[in-house]
């Protein structure tokens, strides 16, 4: 039985349905739960650990879309698709445990219960809106805007507010940050150095501390989207 599901707005009936798991699987750090192109007959609910969802471009560059953690659902894009294959990669960032739901079981349940199907569609719509806002930031504001947007999203997902700053309570390498921005590690290095020089942020034990969140928002003309849309998870 799944102890905790998504932090997003899912009805109790849908939570109960998604708690009907087939089995629980453990995956070690740096291994893939699934990769693009593999046959997809399962969905997963994360029980522990963190898993990064990403897409590989035709030229081999990695674009990270979100970081998923306990209670998040992944592999959902293959529902109601014949001969489905996974569209994205799911790489384990730290040792993880996932509950496995068979795709055909979930499809049968949704087809016979219109109320549950509607709830699931609303939940999926929220995820699509979040993805659209991430691509909007990347397209409209370029590499710098993509980094600033990523930092803002990280403060919403992992930020610990303190009297004078916000600690982003997750360790990410500059390469991992670059993957969220669709750019190179070298470019991220330069932009982070510039933000440190301007005292917008600093580092504390390999974690980013944002000292001037408003600066980041002003630079990308932040629309102050709801936090449920402006997050990295």
UniProtKB/TrEMBL annotation:
Q: Is Transcription one of the keywords?
A: yes
Q: Which GO terms describe its cellular component?
A: cytosol
- Looking at the record, the residues that make up the Cyclic nucleotide-binding domain are 5-116
MF term (GO), any: DNA-binding transcription factor activity
Per UniProt, the keywords (alphabetical) are: Activator, DNA-binding, Transcription, Transcription regulation
Q: Which Pfam families match?
A: cNMP_binding, HTH_Crp_2
Against InterPro entries, the record matches this protein to:
cNMP-bd_dom (IPR000595), cNMP-bd_dom_sf (IPR018490), Env_Response_Regulators (IPR050397), HTH_CRP (IPR012318), RmlC-like_jellyroll (IPR014710), Tscrpt_reg_HTH_Crp-type_CS (IPR018335), WH-like_DNA-bd_sf (IPR036388), WH_DNA-bd_sf (IPR036390)
**Record's keyword annotation contains Iron:** no
The HTH crp-type domain covers 141-214
Q: Which PROSITE patterns match?
A: CNMP_BINDING_3 (PS50042), HTH_CRP_1 (PS00042), HTH_CRP_2 (PS51063)
Q: Which domain of life is it from?
A: Bacteria
UniProt-recorded name of the protein: CRP/FNR family transcriptional regulator, anaerobic regulatory protein
